[in-house]
Amino acid sequence: MSVSVIMPMFNSGPFIENAIRSVCEQTYDDWELLVVDDCSSDNSVEVVRSLAVDEHRIKVISLNSNGGAAVARNEGIKASSGRYIAFLDSDDRWEPRKLEKQVEFMEERDIAFSHTGFKRVDLTTDAMLSEYIPPEYLTYKDMLYSNQVGCLTAMFDTKQVGRIAMPDIRKRQDYAMWLKILREVGSVYGLNEVLASYTVRNDSISSNKISLLKYNYSVFRDCEGFSVPASLYYLLANTLIRIKRGRS
């Protein structure tokens, strides 16, 4: 089954080549890579186009205005043709057998939505900072208390889920999307192998803890439609769990 890999890009020149090469080096070869440029002002587009010369499965989509990761990912989803949708940010990487193992995992069990383990690595040194191994499965209720699905490892089956869009919020749109999918399919299943590397960057929006609180609240209040008290309850639960895990 074919896989469409969605990669939003904004001023990613220094590291996007490594991300793209980790897709090109997959042992599973039935894929397309949709790189969606969100109005980069550096050499990102030139880097991608140079790699696409010898790799027809890489496609570049250029947006007319900067809209953020949700807009970029949604444009990629709309342009995709694969049975499965997977995501990889421009500064992250996959292990060579990531797609092979995950597609096999989903097909053997007729799974609609899955994710894998991943490691967090330092941007400068590439040293491993921590490792995440997913549980066997997570329900919608489980995910309300904590987002345990890394965007770089998520994959869903469009035949069962549809070609759905991420909610248009500036951050945490992936979390909102997982909840949206789980309302339909019930569970996300974990392949308990580390098959990706998430790059920890101090300049990312997700590293701004106050900002993160605001976007988490938006997921519950605006995307899930919860009351103010319920939204605050899940926001507090999320925050406490992240602190306990050392990811505050």
TrEMBL record:
Q: What is this protein called?
A: Glycosyl transferase
Signal as a keyword? no
- Species of provenance: Idiomarina piscisalsi
Question: Where in the numbering of this chain does the Glycosyltransferase 2-like domain appear?
Answer: 4-131
The record's SUPFAM superfamilies line, in alphabetical order, gives:
Nucleotide-diphospho-sugar transferases
Taxonomy, superkingdom: Bacteria
Q: Which UniProt keyword terms apply here?
A: Transferase
**Coiled-coil residue spans:** none
Transmembrane segments in this chain: where? none
Q: Name one GO molecular function term.
A: transferase activity
Look up keyword Transferase and say if it applies: yes
**Which InterPro entries does the entry mention?**
Glyco_trans_2-like, Nucleotide-diphossugar_trans
